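Appendix B. Chain record.
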Amino acid sequence: MKVGTSESDEEHEEGDNVFYEFDDKFCYDEDLSFLDFHANRMMRENIGNEISKSYEELGNRTKGLKKSKKKILSYMPGSWIEKVDSMKLSDYDVPQTTSLILVGPKRSGKSSLINRISRVFEVDKFAPERAQVSYNDSVEEPNVGDGTLFLHKYLIPRGSSSFCLYDTRSLSNDSHENFKMLEHWMTKGVCHGELVIRDSDSLSLRTRMKFKAYKKGCMSNERNKVNFVVFVVNGYSVLKSIHAKDEDKQYVEQIASAFNCPFVSFRDDKPLVVVTHGELLETFDRVYVRLYLGKLLSISPTTQIFDIPGTSDPETDVVILDMLRAALERADKNLPPKPFMNKLFLLLHKMPLQCHMVLPLFQSSNFWLLMVLGIAILLAMVLRGYIYQQVSPKQDVQWHKIRHLWLG
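Structure tokens predicted for this chain:
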């Protein structure tokens, strides 16, 4: 079955033409032969069909919603860590709370997404929304209002200490400012209530921000290390930018520039992407956006891009839980070893190849137990000798009285 949402063959054919048009404009490479281009097109079509099928299967997956929610609720930092090289959980630098930050352009829906995620775990369905959302009734004017100016920490669920989401200030149109902001968060950590000021902020905005900071009071003294990053993008804005002229493609260029910032990746793991406002698009367009972002950002559109619309239904809850599980698994996977263990491993890896045979021995708990016991015995022997020298009397030997013994 081809990618498309209409039932008639004519509409299917029209949808396929749009899909092939996407391939021709976005995937064409002059260095590819016709056969390679055709193979890439077929592969992309198969991925598109796989994404379309995933939307159809969401209804059946709601049957396991309670089990998936229980899995997330049972999570504790480090509980999903991938233990390699005989390392134990105690060998890793495990945080008290796993911190995930949401990053994205203005009006991408970060605050709304936090409210939607929090609602999945709410016992009281009438509880007020937690994150402040800037209301704008026009999708054509996404830059109205100041948006989020302070970093906000939200424990998920409320009162839990397992993991949290940080709502952040939107990306700037200046890529240098974005790199500077992301570098600060990823190297220095994030702090609840911290005011985010950019060089490009106007004087009036700075005045309003400082006044809000004055009324808000002091920020938290606790600075948390970021454990993983989730990019949030507006699906409607992405689609609009795709079809725009070259000079109007700023939205997708802003996303690609910030996403490729080296600070937001964890080793080989790039951030996850959440596409919002899908309720404004047809199913085909939602597939189209995910395919485009997958190609643009070099990530899997099926396993690393999650379509989470603003609707409240069990199908959306399933996707939210899938996204959280993927983010938490990657956060645990990339937990660093404790500083002492890290320095020891770096030292061992600099040794000749023959020395690497003893690496498992150094990672064994029995080895360290014997090492401590041996050091204790050695210290005891040294201390015993020192004490003996202090308390034993020194005796002078009178050689003239025992001459007969050694002269024979």
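Further analysis of this model is presented in Appendix C.
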